[in-house]
Amino acid sequence: MPVVIGVAGYSDSGKTLLIEHLVPRLMARGLRVAVIKDCEHAVDVDRPGKDTDRLFAAGADVLAAGPNETFIRLHAADLSLAECLRRLPPEYDLVVTEGFRDAAIPKIRLDSEPDEHLLVRLTDAQEGTDAAEQAVWEYVTRATSDASL
Amino acid sequence: MPVVIGVAGYSDSGKTLLIEHLVPRLMARGLRVAVIKDCEHAVDVDRPGKDTDRLFAAGADVLAAGPNETFIRLHAADLSLAECLRRLPPEYDLVVTEGFRDAAIPKIRLDSEPDEHLLVRLTDAQEGTDAAEQAVWEYVTRATSDASL
User: Is there a contact between A65 and B75 if contact means CB atoms under 8 Å apart?
Assistant: First the structure.
């Protein structure tokens, strides 16, 4: 099971920007990283009329194996974090989540809300990247060594 | 493990059309169906500059949980059928594949190539839907009852 953490904050507080900066740093440390984003608005992928879109419209979930990347479209909607984790391939060390406000997971906070699972609190997404990287790395290292006892 | 079958045929022989017609019929029979398509050309999803696209460009695999559907983008490319199956969520009864020419799985054929794993051979995708549905349903029923022995 991967280690799962969250990034929380008000709208436009820089959650995506922070994750965008964190991911390459954590990957450079050797972690295999996935991001799960809880989207408020309809997600909009694929192109109408393409083969993969026709197969999805026919009712099937679709995996498209391309020469550049792979994508999977599922009809399952409005998934909880646990339901998302169950559908993610099994190969990650760390999953960073954005938008699952009520999930009881350690969180990086870009706001001033109280949090009993606080990992680190930042006042600025850009300037806080170093502190966030350090906090996540320590947490992952600790969680992984605990799990291997 | 789901039952896995393939649809094979020359270019433009109607493989996607056949699957498009088969899927709702098989789902109406109670099967949970996924389609895996081996795409020759680059798959093209998401919209440049969107949050999910930025997170993917940062290097992470991304799962986007939307109110309408869910999608997963993986950097893994050019996957074999076995590698695709390992990344698919575990909840399907039947996986229909298109494009994995060399996979040793039962196949519906829309061409005249020899095939030691032949499920059924059709001369026309549109007119062959009934025969294909029947052959797939019998195969799934048999494979499932064998597995539960």
Answer: no
Give the pairing type, strands B94-98 and B33-38. Answer: parallel
User: Quick check: B72 and A68 CB within 8 A?
Assistant: no
- Going by C-alpha positions, the residue among A149, A37, A27, A32 that lies closest to residue A90 is A32
Cα dihedral sign, A104-A106-A109-A114:
positive
Residues B113-138: b if buried by 16+ CB within 10 A, e if exposed? eeeeeebbbbeebeebbeebbebbbe
Q: Are A44 and B47 in contact (CB under 8 A)?
A: yes
ipTM above 0.90, yes or no: yes
CA distance A148 to chain B (A): 24
pLDDT tens per residue across span A82-120: 999 999 999 999 999 999 999 999 999 999 999 999 999
Tokens of B86: 């390992």
pLDDT at position A146: 77
Q: At what angle do helices B15-28 and B129-147 cross, to 10 degrees?
A: 60
Evaluate whether B80 touches A67 at the Cβ level (below 8 Å).
no
Question: Do A74 and B73 lie within an 8 Å CB cutoff?
Answer: no
Write out chain B residues lying below 8 Å of A67, CB-based: 39-42, 77-78
**Across the 149 residues of chain A, what is the mean pLDDT of every consecutive 10-residue run?**
95 95 98 96 84 96 96 97 96 96 95 95 94 97 80
H or E stretch including B141?
helix B129-147
Helix A15-28 × helix A129-147 angle, to 10°: 60
Q: What is the DSSP letter of A93?
A: S
- Paired tokens of B49: 């500059």
Cβ <8 Å between B33 and A69:
no
